[in-house]
Write a structure and sequence with these properties.
Elements (H helix, E strand, L loop, with lengths): L25 E5 L3 E8 L2 E3 L2 E3 L5 E3 L22 E3 L7 E3 L32 H22 L10 H35 L3 H9 L2 H33 L9 H23 L6 H7 L2 E4 L9 E2 L1 H11 L14 H10 L10 E4 L35 H26 L1 H7 L6 H36 L1 H4 L7 H8 L2 H10 L1 H30 L2 H24 L1
Antiparallel strand pairs: 1-2, 2-3, 4-5, 6-7, 8-9, 8-10
Helix pairs in contact: 1-2, 1-13, 1-14, 2-4, 2-5, 2-14, 4-5, 4-9, 7-8, 9-11, 11-14, 15-16
């Protein structure tokens, strides 16, 4: 009751209170009016006792200490320093442990309540509509591009164009997967789980659905990145070597298909390997364990560090047991089983897979500081922040983007000359089309660079927060659901001139209709309306012809 008024007032006990306790009691007179008792300890007499409703007595220091010392909860009633778990009124935690991101109540009510419930996508944020919008548009636009680009493959006359178009298809395939990921995530958040996610999140983090979404998002992002990297290196090599293009042949088709297959295999492997159920792989990538509710000592999602803290206390004094962060999950599981007798039956536990570090199930580039797998002793972040695999992938992605940017910049500077060096026609229209292609590819590269590189830098700073002081936990979902996937929506818009032609046409219609009142006013004075209408009609006809040509191309 420090720093607050104690609702349990101390009162003088009668001399025969606390029957069966305190045999060394000394009867004395209290307030010169009634008999009470005191006991002696440490050379002083005291009567600091609290009598429970059941007649039992406890030391007054045990009142409001979050422990049911009276065994009838009377010593913990009306206390202001505690939170009572919802489904088990006998489980008490400190009030400051409510809504702190760490599960203490067996029913998770300390973190899943009206004040601090969580959803797959952050509660109270505007990310959900962004997720729906970007996901649906990216899916539809990239499906459209994958329906258009393959039709032009049969018209490829040299291996350079064939290789370029195949890799562009892979880029759109990766962007399509990101769109599908966002739509699926929105469905689970907004339709299936809604507000129940907080209590059901263990099912989500250990389930197949989250794993599949993690694989889809990882394959999509890496497929686009590696395809752009391969395309950039290929085009740069052709410019540097002044290589003349060769006609499409069986060998060039095999070479193109081989490169595309290799990119797909690497992207899929990066996404799937963390989920392979081999012990050596699981020991590195499994995030933690979730237990049957009967394991009351293991609440919520439990990291390896949290297991070690509990097991060391339970097996204290057993010199044959030595636990470190290098201990395997199998060793930890065996020790956990040893804590419980066979009377408990077959208690189950499930693994928190690699993508189960946050509700959005993306690759573990950032672990939020409020990660649910932390134990009470883990003050900042869980132990996997310095995962060498994550650092390796971040470094590879950063190198890829700098290769892409350097290649695109060099090619852009030599684009007028390179159109001849790679065997493009000297026809003015052909050179113009090639120039437009260069502009579109450079725009795709720049937008992807601006999305990914800041994200990678933030990941580095966050994972070294003990040095940098940067905590990106609150930015993580915005970065992962808006900044990274936005290029999946932008890329098809940039690449397909049909869409830009439509935009130009709509803009022209808007400006024409906006200017029409002033034109009408002028026509009543100077009779210029027919000329303006004719001019607008000519412009619209030109745009319509350009639009048709773009579609035909």
């Amino acid at each position: 009751c420090k720093n607050s008024s104690c609702p349990l007032k101390k009162k003088i006990l009668k001399h025969d209170s606390c029957s069966g306790q305190y045999e060394d009691r000394i009867i004395t007179l209290a307030n010169n009016s009634e008999l009470t008792f005191v006991t002696k300890s440490e050379h002083r007499y005291h009567n600091d006792y609290f009598q429970c409703d059941n007649g039992r007595c406890v030391n007054f220091s045990q009142v409001c200490d979050l422990v049911n010392d009276c065994e009838d909860m009377s010593d913990e009633q009306n206390c202001t320093n505690q939170f009572i778990c919802e489904n088990d009124k006998r489980q008490l935690i400190g009030f400051n442990q409510k809504c702190d991101g760490i599960y203490d109540c067996l029913d998770l009510s300390d973190e899943c309540n009206d004040q601090c419930g969580r959803r797959i996508i952050s509660s109270g944020s505007s990310l959900t509509p962004f997720c729906w919008t970007i996901g649906i548009l990216a899916t539809l636009l990239n499906i459209g591009m994958l329906a258009i680009v393959p039709k032009s493959l049969s018209r490829c006359r040299n291996e350079n164009i064939l290789f370029t178009k195949v890799l562009v298809m892979l880029i759109f395939s990766g962007d399509l997967l990101m769109g599908i990921y966002l739509v699926a995530l929105s469905v689970y958040d907004d339709i299936i789980y809604k507000e129940t996610f907080c209590r059901d999140q263990a099912k989500w983090f250990t389930g197949v659905e989250c794993s599949v979404l993690g694989v889809i998002s990882t394959v999509g992002s890496q497929l686009s990145l590696f395809s752009m990297t391969a395309l950039s290196i290929f085009r740069l090599s052709k410019v540097l070597l002044n290589a003349l293009p060769l006609p499409v042949s069986r060998l060039s088709i095999i070479k193109t298909v081989s490169w595309a297959t290799l990119i797909v295999i690497i992207s899929v492997a990066m996404a799937v390997i963390p989920l392979i159920p081999f012990q050596q792989i699981e020991d590195h990538f499994v995030q933690g364990l979730h237990y049957d509710p009967a394991y009351k000592v293991f609440v919520g999602l439990n990291s390896k560090r949290k297991h070690i803290n509990i097991l060391e206390k339970y097996y204290h004094g057993n010199s044959s047991i030595s636990l470190t962060m290098d201990s395997t999950w199998r060793e930890i599981g065996d020790l956990v089983d040893g804590m419980f007798s066979h009377n408990y039956g077959n208690l189950t536990r499930s693994k928190v897979h690699f993508y189960g570090n946050d509700g959005i199930c993306m690759f573990k580039f950032i672990i939020p500081t409020n990660d649910a797998r932390r134990g009470r002793q883990e003050i900042s972040k869980v132990e996997l922040d310095n995962d060498p695999v994550v650092w390796t992938i971040l470094t590879i992605n950063l190198i890829c983007f700098f290769v892409i940017l350097i290649s695109a910049t060099f090619i852009w500077k030599r684009s007028k000359t390179s159109s001849d060096l790679v065997g493009r026609s000297k026809n003015k229209a052909s050179r113009e089309r090639y120039r437009n292609l260069e502009i579109r590819i450079l725009a795709i590269v720049v937008t992807d660079f601006l999305c990914w590189v800041p994200f990678i830098i933030i990941c580095y700073l966050h994972n070294q927060s003990n040095v940098t002081g940067v905590d990106a936990s609150n930015w993580y979902q915005a970065l992962a659901l808006v900044v990274l996937p936005i290029n999946s929506l932008i890329n098809p818009v940039i690449y397909d001139r049909t869409i830009t032609s439509i935009c130009k046409q709509k803009f022209l219609e808007f400006t024409t209709s906006w200017a029409s009142p002033s034109v009408t006013a002028g026509s009543t004075q100077g009779g210029a309306l027919p000329e303006v209408k004719k001019e607008n009609k000519d412009i619209q006809m030109q745009e319509c012809t350009s639009f048709k040509n773009a579609i035909a191309e």
